[in-house]
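Hey L., structure's done. Input below.
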Amino acid sequence: MIQSPDRNKGNELQPSTLVALLRWRASKQPDRHGYTFLINGKTESEPLTYGELDLQARAIAALLQKNQAQGERALLLYPQGLEVIAAFCGCLYAGVIAIPVPPPESGRLKRTLPRLRSIVKDAQATFVLTTAGILELIENVRDEFPEFESMQWIDTAEIDLALAEQWQDPKVDKDQLAYLQYTSGSTSTPKGVMLTHFNLMHHCGYLKKACGYDEDSVSITWMPYFHDYGLVEGMIVPLYNGTPCYVMSPFSFIKRPLQWLRNITKYKGTHSQAPNFAYDLCIRRIKPKQLEELDLSSWQAAGNAAEPINPKVMYEFVETFSPCGFKWETFSPSYGLAENTLLATTTPRGQNPVLLAIKTSAIEQNKVVVADSAETDGVRIVPGCGKKVCDMKIAIVDSLTMTRCQDGEVGEVWLSDPSVAQGYWKRPDVTKETFCAYLQNTNEGLATQASELDSTVASLPFLRTGDLGFLHEGELFITGRIKDLIIVRGTNHYPQDIEWSVQQLHPALRPDYGAAFSIFDRGEEKLVVVQEIERRTENLDTEKLIADIRQEIAEQHEIQVYAVILGKPGNILKTASGKIQRRACRDKFLAGTLNVLADWCENPEFTAKFRSLQGELESLAEQVKTAKM
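Output:
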């Protein structure tokens, strides 16, 4: 039986909202260590206790209440740190819907402002909680940000903590919205996922059990607060568990990956999560002599999610860091998405990750055929993403017929559970399409058998994830995204497989910075590969490298590439969690706006040389026309 959200196994009242939870901790455990921010990745801030967090949250909430903000939306614009945690809790304390979003960056304003503006418009946000530094930055682009005038901007560092005494409990219900988690916008305009207090509390309970947290757990996180992985498991789960959390900036990690592992060593971290690229970065950037200072034996669950998992990276990470105490079973491959609050599957603590060898020819036809252990040719190694989290229900579905796939078939991954969000903010049609799916000719739209459920969680439809995958012996395997799938002559090709093949060819090819996608030319779907070249690469024979890429793809994937573009760094856009924005790259290719180092295309009109010449001719023609006038 699933317990009522308000009761635990001892039949004692349990907090049903994050507000009630933090108030309880502030009352019963006011001096307990909640969070520490590691400035520049290493210098400790003053620890933030639950009593101090509650005080700050009440002061922020009281100011919002003075401005009649209950029910309104408030953007959280902060650098990574403890201020954003207080601001998030302050919003909840005021009955305000929080919106964690990436802060604008001084060097990338033109790239960050458009997305920020689209979120402001979509959410109809009326408040912004932020810092003096970001306020000054926004002031400099006031003319490009007309929404500036319509919102009230609050520097939370300036709020008098004495205001906390004026706070009034808004009596929020567990079913009220707590926050909007905006999707990356990698394939469309960002959408706000609506998450309630119950979604958050219920899912934190799931993660505590599924990820093996206990009273001795210590969390280390650098994942950004505006991403569901960083917010939910990185920052909120430690509050739910009542265990300490050490927070780094993502920039500190990128600048020096060693510092992440140093902090796990120093604070004896047990749980820390990251996408695949982070583990790869550690392998490439940490020098052998630096391994001597690391002790990773305390690390119990190294979450690996948010982007495709590369088995080769996992093997190399274990090989590199096993002398430091890192074990194969420490890896915890997982799968999740914001629409499900966070994780749908994870590898239980202490269990080995699962790697499955399958026949490539079969998977290209959406079939799963496990290869014999002796087979090597025509075999693809697929990493498992763990087993279902607690009572999560997973179905593999034919997205055209809406019927459950047979065993051994690839289909769309559907989820059903109380963790699933309420839909997209102000998007009823898309919400219905994505969150209200039912299998055809069956009653399996229920989360599980009604006899096994509390009435509060019965009769839940399925969430369509848009991801392709299959189940094998209870393990979920993700093979790609429906919209990213490349289909040439009736055969399926997964872009990440092609990208990984390319990046093994030469050290100048930047790992995790390539994009494979398809375009239509003369009515046929064609493969295009864009690959960034490492900075400061000299004497590179680009003509030979392009030829090698074409040959590798032909041999390994039995598909002819239509165009190969070697680009300078900055061409491949990624989401906040590191997912490659393949459609954005495709749009830049078609528009001719890629920063090309060298390229080749079956149709010369798509090459940079042709486009440049065409531009020169058009310019000359315009000059002649002007001269005649």
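Confidence is low (pLDDT under 50) at residues 1-13, 445-458. The domain at 343-482 is CATH 2.30.38.10 (Luciferase; domain 3).

-- N.
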